[in-house]
């Protein structure tokens, strides 16, 4: 069972670790679905020693039928992580602009690639600043790392597997998008509105607020209300596998490190016009 200590780190604890002779590698993964690129935020100020890593181009593969944020090529991911100074077995801390989504996807990607010692800065860059910690505009030149990408350390769903999980009994496929998108009333990003038949809607704000997670017991209660019992097979998806990675992190915090991510998510599902689309609210249990 995963514990909070190896998943999240608070600003004060991180500051103490950064004072050590061999501190964690810091990765700034600030990102927006729309608007100025995260690199602009990084250049304006970041945690001292942090290296910027781009979610779209370095932590994910190119968009296409596999989704808007598909799995990265392992060799390309390994090169990006080594360039950022990630070393085999050495701790990494990732952070974003505060909502926790990009950081969770970075956390998930590194763990999927076999690098286990990675944590998310709880509350992201705003929490660091609010704690009165220093900010730098100096871009470091890290010594290249030697990490090896070994994909498969976390479970992944493709479209067929997601469909089977949604139809399974027991089994829960969580759709963590906003309820109007799930119900098919609106779709601001993808070409088709609706959800995977059988998926259960649990919008992200119901288990995380402003990038901060409640206690494990509260998370377990919220997931149980969506049908995720202790031994129920569970997976998650969203629009492109970013918000859903945060759901997987929340499930780890709740004691479910076996939770699977449908990486391609809705953007992959609707790339095939033959896949069925459901609309309407989640039916009562």
Question: In words, what does this structure look like?
Answer:
This protein has 285 residues and is an alpha/beta fold. It has ten helices and ten strands. It has helices at residues 11-18, 38-44, 74-83, 101-112, 124-130, 159-167, 179-183, 216-225, 243-253, 265-269, and strands spanning 8-9, 25-28, 51-52, 92-95, 118-121, 156-157, 172-175, 200-201, 234-237, 260-262. The strands form two sheets. A five-stranded parallel β-sheet has the order 1-5-4-2-3. It has a five-stranded parallel β-sheet with strand order 6-10-9-7-8, with helices on both faces. Helix 2 (38-44) links the parallel strand 2 (25-28) and strand 3 (51-52). The mean pLDDT is 96.
Overall 3D shape: globular
Main sheet? Answer: 5 strands, parallel
Mean pLDDT value? 96
- Helix percent reads 25-40%
Query: What is the total tally of β strands?
Result: 10
Distance between the termini: 27 Å
Strand content: 5-15%
Structural class of the secondary structure composition? alpha/beta
Q: Taking strands numbered 1, 2, ... along the chain, how are they ordered across the largest sheet?
A: 1-5-4-2-3
Provide the gyration radius in Å. Answer: 18 Å
Total helix count? 10
Question: Which series of helices and strands comes N to C?
Answer: EHEHEHEHEHEHEHEHEHEH
Q: List segments where confidence is low: pLDDT < 50 over at least 5 consecutive residues.
A: none
Question: What is shown here, in short?
Answer:
With 285 residues, this protein is α/β, with parallel strands linked by helices.
Tag the structure with descriptive keywords.
five-stranded parallel β-sheet; 285 residues; 10 helices; alpha/beta; globular
């Amino acid at each position: 069972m995963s514990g909070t200590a190896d998943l999240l780190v608070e600003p004060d604890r991180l500051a103490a670790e950064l004072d050590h002779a061999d501190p964690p590698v810091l990765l700034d993964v600030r990102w927006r679905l729309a608007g100025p690129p995260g690199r602009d935020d990084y250049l304006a100020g970041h945690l001292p020693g942090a290296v910027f890593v781009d979610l779209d181009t370095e932590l994910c593969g190119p968009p296409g039928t596999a989704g808007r944020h598909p799995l990265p090529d392992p060799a390309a991911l390994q090169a990006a992580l080594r360039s950022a100074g990630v070393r085999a077995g050495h701790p990494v801390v990732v952070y974003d602009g505060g909502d926790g989504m990009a950081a969770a996807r970075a956390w998930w990607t590194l763990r999927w690639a076999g690098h286990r010692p990675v944590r998310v800065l709880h509350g992201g860059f705003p929490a660091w600043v609010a704690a009165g910690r220093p900010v730098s505009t100096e871009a470091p030149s890290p010594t290249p790392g030697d990490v090896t990408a070994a994909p498969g350390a976390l479970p992944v769903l493709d479209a067929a597997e997601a469909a089977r999980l949604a139809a399974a009994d027991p089994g829960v496929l969580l759709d963590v998008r906003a309820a109007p998108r799930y119900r098919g009333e609106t779709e601001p990003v993808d070409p088709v509105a609706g959800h995977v038949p059988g998926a259960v809607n649990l919008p992200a704000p119901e288990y995380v607020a402003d990038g901060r997670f409640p206690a494990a017991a509260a998370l377990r209660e919220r997931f149980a209300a969506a049908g995720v019992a202790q031994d129920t097979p569970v997976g998650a998806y969203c629009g492109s596998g970013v918000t859903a990675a945060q759901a997987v992190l929340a499930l780890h915090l709740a004691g479910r490190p076996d939770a699977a991510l449908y990486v391609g998510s809705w953007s992959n599902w609707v790339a095939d016009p033959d896949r069925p689309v459901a609309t309407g609210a989640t039916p009562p249990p």
